[in-house]
Amino acid sequence: MIMRFSQHFSLRLTGLFILLVPATLLAQDDARPLTIDDLMSMKSLSGPVLSPEGDWVVYSVRERDMEEDKSKSQLWAVPTSGGAPIPMTSFETSAGNTQWSPDEKYLSFTASKGDDGETQVWTLNREVGGEAVQLTSVKQGVNDYAWSPDGSRLLLVMTDLKPELLNEDEDDDDAAQPYVIDRMQFKRDYRGYLDRRREHIYVFTPGDEEPIQVTHGDYDDSDPVWSPDGKSIAFVSDRSDNPDLNYGSDVFIVDVDDENHPITQVTSNEGRDYSPAFSPDGRRIAYVTSTGPDVGGSALTPTKHLAITDIDADQREILTPDLDRNVSNPEFSANGRDIYFRLEDSGMNHLARVRARGGDVVREIDGDVSVRDFSMANGEIVVSLTTASTPAELYAFDDDLSQLTHITEATLDGIARAAVEKRRFESADGTPVEAFFVKPVGYEEGRSYPTILWLHGGPASQFNWGYNDTAQLFAANGYAVIMPNPRGSTGYGAEFAHGTVAAWGENDFDDVMAAIDHGIETGLVDPDRTGVGGWSYGGILTNYVITQTQRFKAAMSGASLGLVTSNYGHDQYQLMYELEFGLPWENPELWAELSPFNKVENITTPTLWMGGEVDWNVPINNSEQMYIAMKRLGQETQLVVYPNEHHGIRRPTFQRDRFERWIAWFDQYLKPGAGPVAQSD
After folding, report:
1. Is the residue at 648 inside a domain?
2. Rounded distance between C-alpha atoms, residue 628 and residue 633, angstroms
3. Who's near 135: CB < 8 A, 6+ residues apart?
4. Is 336 exposed, middle or buried (0-12, 13-18, 19+ CB in 10 A)?
5. How many Cβ atoms are within 10 Å of 169's Cβ, its own excluded?
6. Residue 441 DSSP code
7. Which of 214, 209, 198 is nearest to 137 (CA)?
8. Are the C-beta atoms of residues 338 and 352 closer than 8 Å to each other?
9. How far is residue 573's CA from residue 540's CA, in Å, rounded to a whole number?
10. Phi then psi for 194, rounded to 5 degrees?
11. How many beta carbons lie within 10 A of that of residue 299, not counting itself?
12. Would you give the DSSP letter of residue 427?
């Protein structure tokens, strides 16, 4: 179905509703509720990449294999003119980072399916077909790569070899070695302890035995992109005296054809400059720049603007000075006149553009949608787009949106989706706040429902119009769901995002309580059957909520914080803490005030604590401390720890277990006498 976007905002909303809302939403009486089995079988789409000619787009489809207890991905391709998608790989490959060779002869991707177990670059010959061929064979594996414009070389991003692998004569016996630590930032979730091995850029010519290293030093180099002439590579790095003590980064260019590989610094900014994109003529670079006052935690949530500079001098021009909204993923149009980018705004993610010489921001795709990704080539644009009721699908865009994929239709066919409304209301101090209100499946006007106040992570993030499987599952089980964007959230301007700096659990507490009060006042929420929960900062804010009020009958706090001081040097955020709270021994009062553990005696809400065993983002010791304190105080509580899991829970069986426990916990306290967790027939 094709829909033309009107120039009028209201008509765009209407058009999108017609385009993207499935028939099951319009006929709830004939549809059944969503189950956990449905969620576990649901596929997801990501990473669209247009071919150089713009006639094909390749994308990744991920699904859960419950028998092997892992997620797998498969590459598909579909013509941008429309037609049947074609599988390019099997699910056994689990390909990632898909790219096209400039001549479109090869489809390349990264995978760890070789004998060495390391991630390498593989290619599929589209003219010949058959199995993928391994293109690289580097000991440490490949983190990132990109084809040169003429297709003769690849840049590779790789981590320095372990010392024991430098000597060809020594065996790599995988014996455990002591961690020797001498840097400030020494931990990272999913990576573990950090040493002095850094990520650097290499140039690899297929057929050669070894790639050539072109960047060096005690720095990490990322976001590489070839210049249009293939003679240089722009990249991002923090090359200050001690990168572990700041959040800055700049754009650099390395000359790959000069055997000395000289490096030129292109930008200089106290904040972060990143995501560079060359203009088609190679003379300018567009990039994302972080700006804002250099005070406290504002360094953590700066406004992300679109900027441009000539490569010959640091002559930065911000192209979105008056936007006060975050941008990401800049891409030049084929003629170099415009720069396209994703724009975050008030619970929505749009596709926008601006003239490279400056001008007004034009929103190409807006309304109640979330543009997850986009790709451009040869004047063509494809986007992955989601709404509150439909998971992400792929669309071709040229004034009109033309749907190219139907990944989730089979799974969701005949399943009722909950209606979602975005509402605005005032917090205690009069600040306008927005929240998404999800009505339970089978909603009847005039009835009040058990309600879950569901809080997002970050806090520098937002709920948006994209499909939220957790909220839809709660709604399928008879719950209303409120998903607020309180202060600290992005998408509402710098002042709003900085509203929780060194004040966690203050303004954002007032904002989320205003959301639940609005739900009560409008008749949706049963005030005697309310629960609260969230993961990461959503769990942290849950802790602030239940230490300040006894209104909620149940809580779920996932990967949350208890005693802030115990995390200093134990998690990965010591620099953030120092910027926002000061040093713990110099400002102990604030550190103590921000610790929910110090107010645990106020908690009377039955609380489920959850987290990953090896989470170094928000370590499990926080949940353990809160759990044992509540247990000692004689309150109703439970702790669930997922073995070998990090901040995000990745094993499908654990994901399923978590959904089941959430519903069972809230049912126990908000719906006494409720039956077992909803299952499929």
Report:
1. yes
2. 8
3. 108, 120, 121, 122, 123, 154, 206
4. middle
5. 4
6. T
7. 209
8. no
9. 15
10. -105, 135
11. 22
12. -
User: What is the amino acid identity at position 595?
Assistant: S
Flag whether 354 is in a domain: no
| Ramachandran quadrant class, 559 (left: phi over 0; alpha: psi -120 to 50; beta: rest) | left
Q: Is the peptide bond prior to 276 cis by the omega test (within 30 degrees of 0)?
A: no
Per-residue pLDDT, 42 = 94
Joined tokens for residue 27: 């006929």
Closest CA to 119 of 146, 164, 157: 157
The domain in which residue 659 lies consists of: 420-670
Instruction: Give the tokens for residue 374.
Output: 């986009």
Q: Mind giving me the DSSP string for 452-509?
A: EEEE-SSSS----SS--HHHHHHHHTT-EEEEEE-TT-SSS-HHHHGGGTT-TTSHHH
Q: How does strand 263-265 pair with strand 250-255?
A: antiparallel
Q: What's the confidence (pLDDT) of residue 681?
A: 37
Q: Which pLDDT does position 673 carry in this prediction? A: 61
Residue type, 5: F
Whether 360 is covered by a domain: the verdict is no
Please tell me the predicted confidence (pLDDT) of residue 247.
86
Distance CA 378, CA 382 (A): 12
**Amino acid 566: pLDDT:** 94
- Whether the CB-CB separation of 630 and 601 falls below 8 Å is answered with no
Q: Is the dihedral of CA 274, 279, 283, 284 positive or negative?
A: negative
Report which secondary-structure segment, H or E, holds 513: helix 507-521
Q: What is the DSSP letter of 162?
A: P
DSSP 553-573: SEEEEES--S-GGGGTTTSS-
**Tokens standing for residue 581:** 């709270």
Residues 341, 330: contact at Cβ < 8 Å? yes
Q: What is the pLDDT of residue 161?
A: 87
Q: How many domains is the chain partitioned into structurally?
A: 1
Round to whole Å and give the CA distance between 623 and 574: 19
Q: Residues of 31-47 as b/e, b for ≥16 C-beta within 10 angstroms? A: bebbbbebbbebebbbb
Are the C-beta atoms of residues 157 and 207 closer than 8 Å to each other?
no
Helix, strand, coil share (%) of the chain residues, nearest 5: 20, 35, 45
Q: What is the maximum alpha-carbon separation in the chain?
A: 77
Token reading at 235: 């990249």
What is the DSSP-derived secondary structure letter of residue 218? S
* Residues recorded for the chain: 681
Q: 583: left (phi > 0), else alpha (psi -120 to 50), else beta?
A: beta
Closest Cα to residue 367, out of 385, 381, 353? 385
Q: DSSP letter for 415, please.
A: B
- The SS3 of residue 580 is helix
**Cα–Cα–Cα angle for 580, 583, 587, nearest 5°?**
90
Encoding tokens for residue 448? 């009040």
64-80 burial by CB neighbour count: b if 16+ within 10 A, else e?
beeeeeebbbbbbbbeb
Q: What is the pLDDT of residue 91?
A: 67
Burial class (CB in 10 A: 0-12, 13-18, 19+), 654: middle
The structure tokens listed for 186 are 């020494």
* Half-sphere exposure for 602 (CA within 13 Å, toward CB): 15
| Regions of the chain where pLDDT drops below 70 | 1-29, 91-93, 114-116, 163-174, 292-300, 314, 673-681
- Residue 4 in tokens: 């033309």
In this structure, what CATH number is given to the domain that contains residue 647? 3.40.50.1820
Contact 119, 144 (CB under 8 A): no
In a domain, 463, yes or no: yes
